[in-house]
């Protein structure tokens, strides 16, 4: 239990320091007339031209009402594995095209929903949720110890898993 509280405290510190940094950034941008591009900040570099939802709740709502599957990417800005996956994800033309068919959310913090960490809170991890709001435990990567982890070398597996998520939708609804 001790380890967990350390991790929680550490994450809290990251969140607090990020929040402070954001506020500092806001003051500077008030003087400039150019409006910040909204989607780019929400994409956090995973696909600047894609439409990203802002919160988990919004993502669930949209998935349910649009009948599209939801893809959630958990990552951290200072995690080299997250950065590496983000790079190949953003540069993969087919993935970026296919991603348009999903409700998209990327998170740099954990939600309180335990369903999003079926086998632990590691990053990067990618989960698919269908419009019935069920986490698809059947769409996994190739690591038995971290089912939803993907390395840059697994990008084609991630692509086929995205296709699988869309196919399942057609057969089940």
From TrEMBL:
Q: Does the keyword Lyase apply?
A: no
Put simply, this protein is called AGR2 protein
Keywords per UniProt = Endoplasmic reticulum, Secreted, Signal
GO cellular-component terms in the record? endoplasmic reticulum; extracellular region
PANTHER family (alphabetical): ANTERIOR GRADIENT PROTEIN 2 HOMOLOG, ANTERIOR GRADIENT PROTEIN-RELATED
As one GO molecular function, the record gives: dystroglycan binding
Compartment list: Endoplasmic reticulum; Secreted
The domain of life for this entry's organism is Eukaryota
Q: Which organism is it from?
A: Leptocoma aspasia
InterPro entries xref list: AGR/TXD, Thioredoxin-like_sf
Q: Does the keyword Phosphoprotein apply?
A: no
Family affiliation: Belongs to the AGR family.
Q: What is its main location?
A: endoplasmic reticulum
Report the leader peptide range.
1-21
């Amino acid at each position: 239990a001790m380890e967990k509280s350390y991790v929680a405290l550490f994450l809290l510190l990251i969140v607090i320091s990020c929040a402070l940094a954001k506020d500092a950034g806001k003051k500077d941008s008030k003087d400039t007339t150019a409006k910040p591009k909204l989607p780019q900040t929400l994409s956090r570099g995973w696909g600047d031209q894609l439409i990203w939802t802002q919160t988990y709740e919004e993502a669930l709502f949209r998935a349910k009402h649009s009948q599209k599957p939801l893809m959630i990417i958990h990552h951290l800005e200072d995690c080299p594995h997250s950065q590496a996956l983000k790079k190949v994800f953003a540069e993969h033309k087919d993935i970026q095209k296919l991603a348009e068919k999903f409700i998209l959310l990327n998170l740099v913090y954990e939600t309180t929903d335990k369903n999003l960490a079926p086998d632990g809170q590691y990053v990067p991890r990618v989960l698919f949720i269908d419009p019935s709001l069920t986490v698809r435990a059947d769409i996994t990567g190739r690591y038995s110890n971290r089912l939803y982890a993907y390395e840059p070398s697994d990008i084609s597996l991630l692509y086929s898993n995205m296709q699988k998520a869309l196919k399942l939708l057609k057969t089940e609804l």
